[in-house]
Design a protein that fits this description.
By secondary structure, this protein is mainly β. The protein is built from one helix and 13 strands, in the order E-E-E-E-E-E-E-E-H-E-E-E-E-E. Helices cover 5% and strands 60% of the residues. Strands 2-3-6-7-9-10-11-12 form an eight-stranded antiparallel β-barrel. A two-stranded antiparallel ribbon has the order 1-13. A hairpin with a 2-residue loop joins strand 10 (118-127) and strand 11.
Amino acid sequence: MKKVLLATTLLGAFAFSTSAIAADKWEFDSSHATILFEYNHLGFSTTYGVFRTFTGELMLDEDDPTNSSVTAEIPLSSLDTLWEKRDNHLRSPDFFDADMDPVITFTSTSVTNVDGNTAQVNGDLSIHGTTASVTLDVVLNKMADHPMAKKPWAVSTSPQASSSCFFFSSA
């Protein structure tokens, strides 16, 4: 069995809308957000894909953003690289083994305020039974009432997490 390194880069444009429960709880709005990934295929090419469904929440402390937290869950069943055969192979025991471990999770461990609209979110990214510490660089573009939804929204773009800690076996 040979080891194949699948280095993933998660790129997202997250839209958050407030929950009716608490003013500081923001839920991911997957209808206005995207989680993209890329991986290097044995040095020959770079393949891109998307996770079509995900959930998550941001607990935002506007007075002290370092007290904020983020959690996310991404079902592997939503993985899409625009080629069904490759998608099924990536979900197989050769890579993610989605039947045994069907969800990718992220749980923040700390937030560092870089400046007014920029932060680093450190956390644990769990994929295929392996958890690695990653840092997401997050930029808050805007917090305002959404003109159509008539409720508060916040949008942050391009958080990136690169990890070479996830190894998968392939026959």
